[in-house]
Amino acid sequence: MPESNLDTLLNIKKLSFMDLSQYSVQYLKGVGPARAKLFENLGVRTVEDLLYFFPRRYEDRSKLTPIDQLKPGEVYTISGEILDKDGRRTFYNKKHVFEAEVGDDQSRVHCVWFNQPYLDNYLHVGEKVVLHGRVDMFKGRLQLISPEYEIISKEDETLSMGRIVPIYPLTKGMGQRYLRKLVAGALEHRAKDIVDVIPSIVLERQHLRPIAQSIAQLHFPDNEAAQEQANTRISFEEFFFFQICVILRRMNMAQKKGFAHKIPPGVDARFVQLFSFALTSAQKKVMAEIRGDMENKRPMLRLLQGDVGCGKTVVALFGCLLSFLNGKQSAIMAPTEILAEQHFRTLIKHFGRSSFGKMRVALLNSALKKKDRDALYEAIAKGEVDVVVGTHALIEEGVKFKALSYVVVDEQHKFGVKQRALLSSKGQNPDVLVMTATPIPRTLCLTLYGDLDVSIIDEKPKGRGAIKTYHFVGEQADGVYKRVAEWVSKGTQAYIVYPIIEESEALDLKAATDMYAHFQKNEFKKLRVGLIHGRLPREEARQVMDKFQKHELDILVTTTVLEVGIDVPNANVMVIEHAERFGLSQLHQLRGRIGRSEKSAICILLGDPQTEDGKKRVDALIKTTNGFKIAEQDLEIRGPGQYFGRHQHGLNELKVVNPLTQLHVLEAARKEAIVIVKEDPLLKAYPIVRDTIHKRYPEYLERVLAG
Ligand code: ADP
Ligand code: MG
Questions:
Q1: What is the CATH number of the domain that holds 184?
Q2: Ligand with minimal distance to 593 CA
Q3: Is the pTM of this model over 0.85?
Q4: Fewer CB within 10 Å, N side or C side of the chain?
Q5: Interval between CA 312 and ligand 1 midpoint (Å)
Q6: How far does the centroid of ligand 1 lie from the alpha carbon of residue 364, in Å?
Q7: Under the phi-then-psi rule, with left for phi > 0, alpha for psi from -120 to 50, and beta for the rest, what region is 693?
Q8: Can you tell me the distance from the alpha carbon of 668 to that of 685, in angstroms, rounded to the nearest whole number?
């Protein structure tokens, strides 16, 4: 073939295949610079991003419910025409109400929206709409309450009517119909350019469907089964790359050289004697695991899981001792100042004057004056401090160790991989112990943390009283407060916790502060009440905490700042308000603040769960106090997506019929990843895999590179 012909051929190839990960969404028909900006809010920059931008849910508009068949208490999707409308402010509380009558061929239904006055500009009489929402009985008639709405015009009926319709997460200024049209267009014109990034041998072995078809089915599914299959295919892709990185990381770690600690004979027994209590056998087992790792030249990277209060800190301190006895330094990083201080005090208490010689312990927090901080920096750099406890302040650039050999990261999920890596980088491949009180279900642990060794403390110290959990609805609150007052008068202390949800933080904060004021004048007039929340100046928060710890306060009204750490054994009552607004694991975490003494403890969940999941969460908490069981439940309710947190792909929000089926996908992906990486650790034969990791999963790559 003549040269020029070959050129043409190659060029044609270039033209017809487009790298969608380089092709800005801006150049799609109907987008342009302004819309491209909006897309950025959604994390969509390229056409590839758009194709991987999946619906948060679907509406089956192939069989809409006729209006005359609506029943109260259920959620429906209906379609009809706006027959009448009216927007106004209510007289006494100034709330805005927008009302409309919507009718189909047979019947009509009343609809209301609160505080959305702009609806008057959107919804007009004579228009055809699709509504999705809950039907309730109000004053003897059915009404749809604040339904999601969509105006339907003739031209988009093929995408928005008579089929399973995708509902996307939106940003202000962008509508469902626009997105649907755009995605459909991109699928029509660019589906041929979608590259299957999974190696073909894996595709074959796992009988995976073609990627383009799966993406199309996730946007516009033919039916539920097809959607589920497509979901499996996409999940496999995500999990596969995650696993590749996890395994690479593990191999990377294994090659590093750290410090091999010498273990003085009999050190375990002497360590155990520092405490007034006997260690549980689970604690001893983990101590041995840590000792083994620290003795080894290969740097330790160990995840220590255990429920709140099971005694992880004690075990972590053993590593500090080994480091100290080898003339090295250690660091403990905690997510809050309060927790850092608590660790600091524990260290002083047990090691301040022990038979091991004087261990020099320092607390580094952001409250230190510059002069003191500089002095401390210098002492750390000279090796005049043996253990440094602190918050994020520990990873500041100025902090330099002389010989850091052991690092503890408490509540690791509060820190990013980067922060953990930064702290480790202050030593030469130090041994690292990360601790978490949010247990990861056993079924998920290997697949999620295959790059870490895992230790588990699954045993509570002896002599801890049981925690009983009860649920009361909001209306019963007065009775609950009365009982709390009685219990507290007898000498115990209580927490009353309010949720803070980010988007309405100001409002939520008001709940805690208002109730604090209210309690002081009413239910708890004769008791000493304190308030603590995230906006309180640090010094003030510390004082309140201090007072509570010393039992100079009886009741602590608080937001979720309480979540981690706090150890006040005499506090044995907890009331969690609006419990339905917390996640299961978070509720469990909160509850772990009580039941820390031999007395039994009581946790009361106040709230009115609206959803099935909400009810399940409450039930799960009442039934068990075992963190691992709770985590399994949470997995069942929310699916494994929550552990990945890649909101930009919308994967978390996919409607997965049975999230547990995804576990099999996870395991299959792990198996395949192991095969690939084992035979080709540098992925030389898999340039697309390598490329995809760089482009699409930079956060995974970070994890590989972080030490
Ligand atoms: P975690 O860090 O797992 O939440 P901590 O290590 O802070 O738990 O321990 C919680 C409390 O239990 C502390 O007051 C600690 O002194 C105490 N503790 C730890 N281990 C035991 C044990 N084996 N027996 C009795 N009390 C213990
Ligand atoms: Mg702890």
A1: 1.10.150
A2: 1
A3: no
A4: N
A5: 7
A6: 23
A7: alpha
A8: 21
| 567 C-beta closer than 6 A to ligand 1 | yes
Which atom of ligand 1 approaches the CA of 283 most closely?
A: 23
What residue owns the CA closest to ligand 1's atom 10?
A: 309
Ligand approaching nearest to the C-alpha of 340: 2
Please indicate, yes or no, if residue 583 is contained in any of the structural domains: yes
Tens-place pLDDT, residues 377-394 = 999 999 999 999 999 999
Domain end residue (candidates: 401, 423, 457): 457
Q: Which of 314, 567, 594 best tests ligand 1's pocket when mutated (most atoms within 8 Å of CB)?
A: 314
**Does the CB atom of residue 627 touch ligand 1 within 6 A?**
no
Q: Is 604 in the pocket of ligand 1 (CB under 6 A)?
A: no
* DSSP 8-state code for residue 357: -
Q: Is residue 670 part of a domain?
A: no
What residue numbers bound the domain in which 8 lies? 1-62+162-191
> Do 398 and 313 have their domain in common?
yes
Query: Minimum-distance ligand to the CA of 316?
Result: 1
171-213 tens-digit pLDDT: 888 889 899 999 999 999 888 888 899 999 999 999 999 999 9
**Whether residue 472 sits in one domain with residue 603:** yes
Beta bridge partners of 136: 143
Residue 54 and residue 78 in one domain: no
Ligand 1: which of 408, 567, 590 to mutate, most ligand atoms within 8 Å of CB?
567
The closest alpha carbon to 195, from 158, 230, 237, belongs to 237
Rounded to whole angstroms, how far apart are CA atoms 551 and 528?
Answer: 9
Cα–Cα distance for residue pair 190/19, rounded to 1 Å: 10
Q: Which two tokens stand for residue 247?
A: 């395994």
In this structure, the answer to whether residues 550 and 419 fall within a common structural domain is no
Atom 18 in ligand 1: which residue has the minimum CA distance?
Answer: 311
Range name among 20-34, 113-127, 274-288, 435-449 with the lowest pLDDT average: 435-449
**Spacing, Cα 598 to ligand 1 middle (Å):** 12
CATH label of the domain that carries residue 414? 3.40.50.300
Residue 518: how many CA atoms within 13 Å on its side-chain side?
10
Identify the residue whose tokens are 């710890």.
549
**pLDDT confidence band for 460 (50 / 70 / 90):** confident
- Does any domain span residue 584? yes
- Enumerate the H helices of 440-537 as residue ranges: 442-449, 477-489, 505-521
Q: What CATH number did the domain enclosing 107 receive?
A: 2.40.50.140
**How many helical (H) and strand (E) elements, i.e. helices and strands, does the chain have?**
25, 20
Q: What is the pLDDT of residue 3?
A: 44
Q: Is 396 helix (H, G, I), strand (E, B) or coil?
A: coil
562 Cα–ligand 2 center, Å: 13
In Å, how far are 248, 312, 341, 501, 605 from 618, measured between CA atoms? 40, 27, 33, 19, 8
Residues 538 and 474 occupy one common structural domain: yes
Residues 304 and 350 in one domain: yes
Q: Which residue, by CA, sits nearest to atom 23 of ligand 1?
A: 279
Distance from the alpha carbon of residue 602 to the mean position of ligand 2, in angstroms: 21
Q: Whose alpha carbon is nearest atom 15 of ligand 1?
A: 311
**Is it the case that residue 700 has pLDDT exceeding 70?**
no
The reply to whether 543 and 442 lie within a common domain is no
198 inside domain: no
Tokens describing residue 601? 């403890």
Q: How far is the CA of 464 from the centre of ligand 1 (A)?
A: 10
Rounded to 5 degrees, φ, ψ at 492 are: -85, 170
Q: CB-hemisphere CA count at 13 Å for 372?
A: 8
What pLDDT was estimated at residue 294?
97
If one counts the domains in the chain, the total is: 4
Of the three residues 624, 653, 679, the one that is the final residue of a domain is 624
pLDDT of residue 445: 76
The C-alpha atoms of residue 566 and residue 593 are separated, in whole angstroms, by 7
For residue 109 and ligand 1, the question of a CB distance below 6 A is answered with no
Question: CA 504, CA 508: separation in Å to the nearest integer?
Answer: 6
Same domain, 91 and 173: no
